[in-house]
Amino acid sequence: MLSCFAADYRTAGFELLERLATVTPEFVADVVRQQVGLDGAVLLTTCNRFEAYLDVTDAQARDAAAGALLTAVAQQTGVGTGEVTPVLRTFDDADAAAHLFAVSSGLESVVLGEGEIGGQVGRALEVARIARTTTPGLEQVFQRAAHTSNQVQFRTRIGGKGRSMVRLALDLVESRITDWSEAGVLLIGTGSYAGATLAALRGRGVRAVSVFSPSGRAARFAGREGVVPVERDALPGVLGRADLVIACSVASVPVLDAAALTAARESVGRTRPQMVIDLGLPRNICPDVGGVVGVELLDLETISLHAPLPDFAATEDARAMVDAAVDEYRAAQQATAVTPAVVAFRTHVFTLVDDELERLRRRGESTEAAERALRHLASVLVHTPSARARELAAEGEGPTFVAALQTIYGLGLDAGLDVGIDAPGPVPSAGPRPVSRSLVDDGPADETVSC
């Protein structure tokens, strides 16, 4: 059973999301290992949302797993269950898949149709693989989500405008930057979101970019991206001279406050205005930076207030594609649900054939032609019921087929589950997969996307 527990910017607000963002996949993995009935989990945290996708055995296990997860979250973050529970939405089975498909397609984001979310969903699955908390069911639904996201991005107008929080933030500071080609930019953070930010800056003609990494990885990023690395001892000077500072690290504590920025400005005698954009979650920039004379601070909450109204026609097209993907997922799940009955039926028929052939052999009446004929007859007999089972399942009438088999043949649902017969079934688990070099090298500090 697939379940999703989700809180986003509309229900929880950015302050609560910031506190929930400190929950780690490793912490969730501990809950999975300890909780009976919870087979797997994928944690998705971005600047817009905190979501946990769970693979549970049944509704009772779902409720127990939710309670255990919330208790664990409270222990790690200090956010009580009474504070989280009211802002959580719960989705089960096809509804959970529908929510994930919409999220991965950018339909639930602050900036409708944002391009980064699809990659964030993919990375959430990759991290869960590394933590060994994926299951065949989670693999299947997340892979379908990735396919849906790609379809929406490439086949609708909603994905064709390069929408993102980064681009919206740069739109908001456009009037303060007179010449992008002459602007000095300091980028704080070196993960994949920093890469997206750098691409957006270059798209506007920015040439002078320096990068600082709170975890000391600026040199590698700079060498790869062709920008200037900044060591910690040189940071005040670069910070004071920058016209625009953009922070997008996943550092667990703020990396810049009012005192540090004031000292940096004074060290270079700066009096001209500065723009500071905080895209981190948890926040990278202390709110008191906004009180420094000559400095204007844009954080996620402020940026979200300026999100453009949706393009309704494009949104409708995208949602239609999501609905179609959900229908396909539901049909596949329904077909999977009758697999044990199909397998049990086919096993029953072929066992009868084997018994009859053995009886003929004992009597000396078995021939190669007789064996081929009997096995062909058995295949013909099981073909139509097996095909009909899939049709009924797709129509939501799978239980009718199961009940008929139980009534006519007295077959139990647990029969024949290990027999390798060509009935529909779940996608095999990918299991532990090779870790990509970027994940290994970048590590869990400020190198992963935070927004």
What does this structure look like?
With 451 residues, the chain is an alpha/beta fold. It has three domains: 2-162 and 311-331, Glutamyl-tRNA reductase, N-terminal domain (Beta Polymerase, domain 2), CATH 3.30.460.30; 179-298, NAD(P)-binding Rossmann-like Domain (Rossmann fold), CATH 3.40.50.720; 338-409, no CATH class. Helix content is 52%, strand content 12%. The chain contains 18 helices and ten strands. The strands form two sheets. Strands 7-6-5-8-9-10 form a six-stranded parallel beta sheet, with helices on both faces. A four-stranded antiparallel beta sheet has the order 2-3-1-4, sandwiched between helices. It is elongated, with a radius of gyration of 28 Å. Residues 414-451 have low confidence and may be disordered.
Write the layout of secondary structure elements.
Blueprint: E1 2-8, H1 13-20, H2 25-34, E2 38-45, E3 49-56, H3 59-77, H4 81-84, E4 89-92, H5 93-104, H6 116-130, H7 136-155, H8 165-173, E5 184-188, H9 192-203, E6 208-212, H10 218-225, E7 228-229, H11 235-241, E8 244-247, H12 258-267, E9 274-278, E10 295-298, H13 300-304, H14 312-337, H15 339-362, H16 368-394, H17 398-409, H18 437-442
Parallel strand pairs: 5-6, 5-8, 6-7, 8-9, 9-10
Antiparallel strand pairs: 1-3, 1-4, 2-3
Helix pairs in contact: 2-3, 5-7, 5-14, 6-7, 7-14, 11-12, 14-16, 15-16, 16-17
